[in-house]
Design goal:
Layout lengths: L6 H31 L2 E7 L8 E6 L5 E2 L4 E3 L5 E3 L6 E2 L4 E5 L2 H7 L6 E3 L11 E7 L5 E8 L10 E3 L12 E3 L22
Parallel strand pairs: 7-8
Antiparallel strand pairs: 1-2, 1-11, 2-7, 3-6, 4-5, 4-9, 9-10, 11-12
Length: 198
């Protein structure tokens, strides 16, 4: 038997088809956006150094080069600013250190392959806890972390992110570095808990 459709049925079918395609397109764009914008993560911080200044570490979790020009970093009360005013390319799988000054970089004794940024200005990390937000050149949040005074309990030891794929806002996703040097800046392994960096 031949099926027939009136105009109202056809219009509803057309609208349903249109919205389904539109929804799928939006979801695809959102997934692509999430994969490219949240792939740079804050993996290690030194909020209470014994010698030198404060620093933090970024890791590129994506499969693409990421230009950090005009990216910015802010604390809980919006103190902060531009991280780099020039092109700085963080390649896939690699680490980068944002440091208060060159003296601190020298004390870290980094591998030659580890990139370093010394921002035009530095906002101190609070020892009683803070919230750090990393934004890209379009002022879109790329990553954010939160730590309590526990991160500063042992001076000279960094605070390490355990699992890069979990939120930096989860307090149980961080721990004190157990490495003898007090940090694992720029390295592909960590020394806290049983998880490994990847």
């Amino acid at each position: 038997m031949k099926k027939t459709f009136n105009n109202e049925t056809m219009n509803l079918f057309t609208l349903s088809h249109f919205f389904t395609k539109t929804t799928l397109t939006i979801l695809a764009v959102l997934l692509l956006y999430c994969n490219t914008s949240s792939g740079i993560v804050i993996t290690e911080i030194m909020p209470k150094p014994v010698s030198g200044g404060e620093w933090l570490e970024l890791h590129n979790e994506t499969n693409s080069n990421v230009n950090l020009k005009n990216w910015s970093l802010f604390d809980a009360v919006d103190n902060g600013g531009i991280v780099s005013e020039i092109d700085i390319i963080l390649t896939p799988g690699n680490f980068l250190i944002i440091s208060k000054d060159s003296e601190t970089v020298n004390l870290l004794n980094l591998e030659p392959s580890v990139q370093v940024i010394i921002p035009p200005s530095w906002t101190p990390m609070n020892n009683d806890g803070d919230h750090l937000t990393l934004l890209n050149a379009n002022n879109i949040i790329v990553d954010e972390i939160e730590y309590s005074s526990e991160a500063c309990r042992v001076a000279g030891r960094s605070w390490e992110r355990i699992d890069y794929h979990r939120s930096g806002l989860e307090s149980n996703n961080w721990g004190t570095c157990a490495d003898l040097r007090g940090h694992t800046a720029g390295q592909t392994e960590q020394s806290y808990g049983c998880n490994t960096r990847h």
